[in-house]
Structure formats: C-alpha cells, structure tokens
C-alpha cells in the first residue's frame, strides 16, 4: 500500500514510518522544512517539501505521489507546553486542522485516495459533565472557556469534515496526552517547570486526563490504517485515566522533585485563566474500549504509571542543580 503522511517529522510520524515500511508499505512523507528531508529518508520514506497551507502545492504533491491512504498528523505545538497562553500557542495548529485538512481532503478526492486518517485530541474537549471517563459517543464541550474555544472549534471542524467523508472514507484518531523520550510531557521545558514546582495542583485537582505513549500511538495508527471503520472516531489512550491530583505528584516524585504546590482555584483563575482551572479541575478522560474492540489494539504501555517510570529511567533524569 502507498501512503502519504502529512506531518511526517512530528512525534507520531517519526515512529509511524518505520512501522509502515517494515510491514511492506511505501511512504511519502510531507515536511515543510528542507532540512528534515534527510531524516525522512533515513526513516525509510520518500520525502516531499511543501507548505500544508498552500492548496496548489499540496494538490500537486498528492497527485504526484498517487497514494491509496493519506494520514494527517500535522500540528504545530512548539509553544504548547505553556498552557496559560493556550489560544496563541495553538493558533497554527488550528489552521492546520481547518485549512490544512481542507487542502488534504480536496487533494485526496482529486487523486482517488481511498482512506483518510486525521489526528484529534482526547481529553479536555469532552463536555465537563457526567462521568469522568468518556466514550467516542459522548458530546464535546458545548460551552468551553474562551481561551479554548478556537481550538475546540478547529477540532470540531476537523472531526466533522473527516468523519462525514465517504470518498475517501474518513477516520479520526483522538490521541491522549503524548509522552515518551523528549516528547509531550517529557519535553525539556515542561520537565523543568515541574522540577521548579511551577506546575501546581489547582483546586480539587479532579480534572481527569488520558495519556498515551508515543510508540503506542504510532502502533494504533498503523492498525487504524488497515482495520479502522470508515466514519469512526477512536480514543487512542492507555488503560488508566487519572485525575491531576494523582498523576502530577507521581511524576514529580519520579523526577526527584518536591511535591507540587497546591493553589486555590480562584487564585489560579486570576494568574492562569479560567481554561487552566477547567483543565485541572473539570476535564474528562477517554475510554479505549472501542479501539481495542475494532482495531485489535493493546497498548504496550497500558498505564502511565509504569510508562512514566520507564521513560524517566531510560533518560536517566536527575533533579536540576
């Protein structure tokens, strides 16, 4: 099978390419940076360079590649570790989820692509009501905090246009919060903030989060390419969702840092914003039952507890001086 992977040098893409090529597939990887072409070639993909927001360039590259499947993993999360400026940090990703998705889908239809998979997110977008763990059938937040509203609108747009597509048939993967070597929770800036006790437990700390090791996310994506049901959404998360008041102290301890501070919600609302309070006190997690049943997926890192510990041990992290 021939695949066109947009966002090929991202966290998922870098791990997905070797999985696909080892299974006998050929991969054309899209990057907007010429400097990353050698990386894609080392991973086993053919590389093309184009701006995802340039419609004509994307159509030309997709038509030239002639893929049967397109996988949309495009995000721009360079500043995403600072949740206080969420709206600004996710502005570029919002465009990739709207304009970028439009361009890829239009190109897919022109090229006769059969399947189209796109990345979404499992966690804070869910409605902050009812049980702590949600399924794909549960509604998204009808009234998000202002700072989250644009990102949620982009997610809604992407999920709607992809799952409603029948030619190509669309599939959405809602990944949990990524972690892995130098990825997601374990990128440099966030670890340093935790070590310096700058990431507090806010209010009750009852906001529930779902995590997924980046290698498990790539494995689930490879399975969804072959086994996913057209029009479906899948939560790609581990087996153990947890509230902030539980996972954050565990991570701090693994990093040999002091326990996180506790900050009342009213104070965090002043200095961090309503959206940050909501994520830390009201967010909902996701169930992976559907992905297990329909994709036959079983995460190797079934719990963030052992997953976090393994990453910390492998990186040999030590407290900052």
How does this structure look, described?
With 321 residues, the protein is of the alpha/beta class. It has one domain (2-315): Rossmann fold. The protein contains 13 helices and 16 strands. The chain has helices at residues 11-22, 37-43, 55-65, 86-89, 91-111, 146-163, 188-195, 214-227, 244-254, 265-271, 274-281, 289-295, 304-315; strands at residues 2-6, 26-31, 46-49, 69-72, 115-121, 133-134, 169-175, 177-180, 183-184, 201-202, 208-209, 211-213, 233-236, 242-243, 262-263, 285-286. A hairpin with a 2-residue loop joins strand 8 (177-180) and strand 9 (183-184). Helix 3 packs across helix 5 and helix 10 packs across helix 11.
Q: CATH topology, what is it called?
A: Rossmann fold
* Main structural class: alpha/beta
Could you state the order of secondary-structure elements as H and E?
A: EHEHEHEHHEEHEEEHEEEHEEHEHHEHH
Q: What about the largest sheet?
A: 7 strands, parallel
What is the annotated CATH architecture? 3-Layer(aba) Sandwich
Distance linking N and C termini: 50 Å
Mean of residue pLDDT?
Answer: 94
Give the helices and strands, then pairings.
Elements: E1 2-6, H1 11-22, E2 26-31, H2 37-43, E3 46-49, H3 55-65, E4 69-72, H4 86-89, H5 91-111, E5 115-121, E6 133-134, H6 146-163, E7 169-175, E8 177-180, E9 183-184, H7 188-195, E10 201-202, E11 208-209, E12 211-213, H8 214-227, E13 233-236, E14 242-243, H9 244-254, E15 262-263, H10 265-271, H11 274-281, E16 285-286, H12 289-295, H13 304-315
Parallel strand pairs: 1-2, 1-4, 2-3, 4-5, 5-7, 6-16, 7-13, 8-12, 10-15
Antiparallel strand pairs: 8-9, 11-14
């Amino acid at each position: 099978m021939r695949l066109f992977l947009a966002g090929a040098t991202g966290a998922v893409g870098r791990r997905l390419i070797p999985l696909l090529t080892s299974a006998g597939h050929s991969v054309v990887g899209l990057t907007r940076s010429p400097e990353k072409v050698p990386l894609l070639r080392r991973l086993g993909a053919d590389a093309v360079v184009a701006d995802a927001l340039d419609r004509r360039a994307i159509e030309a590259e997709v038509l030239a590649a002639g893929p049967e499947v397109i996988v949309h993993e495009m995000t721009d999360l360079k500043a995403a570790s600072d949740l206080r400026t969420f709206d600004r940090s996710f502005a570029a990703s919002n465009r990739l989820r709207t304009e970028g998705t439009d361009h890829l889908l239009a190109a897919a239809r022109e090229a006769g692509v059969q399947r189209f998979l796109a990345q979404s997110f499992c966690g804070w977008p869910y409605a902050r009501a009812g049980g702590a763990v949600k399924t794909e059938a549960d509604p998204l937040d009808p009234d998000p905090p202002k700072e989250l509203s644009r990102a949620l609108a982009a997610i809604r747009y992407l999920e709607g246009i992809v799952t409603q597509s029948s030619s190509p048939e669309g599939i959405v993967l809602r990944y949990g919060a990524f972690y892995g070597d130098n990825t997601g929770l374990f990128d440099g800036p966030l670890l340093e903030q935790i070590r310096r006790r700058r990431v507090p437990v806010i209010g009750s700390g009852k906001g529930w989060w779902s995590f997924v090791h980046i290698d498990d996310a790539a494995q689930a994506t490879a399975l969804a390419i072959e086994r996913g049901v057209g029009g479906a959404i899948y939560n790609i998360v581990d087996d153990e969702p947890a509230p902030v008041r539980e996972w954050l102290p565990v991570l701090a301890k693994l990093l040999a840092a002091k326990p996180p501070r506790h900050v009342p919600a009213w104070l965090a609302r002043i200095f961090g914003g309503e959206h940050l309070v909501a994520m830390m006190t009201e967010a909902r997690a996701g169930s992976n039952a559907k992905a297990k049943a329909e994709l036959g997926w079983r995460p190797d890192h079934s719990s963030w507890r052992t997953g976090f510990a393994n990453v910390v041990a492998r990186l040999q992290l030590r407290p900052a001086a």
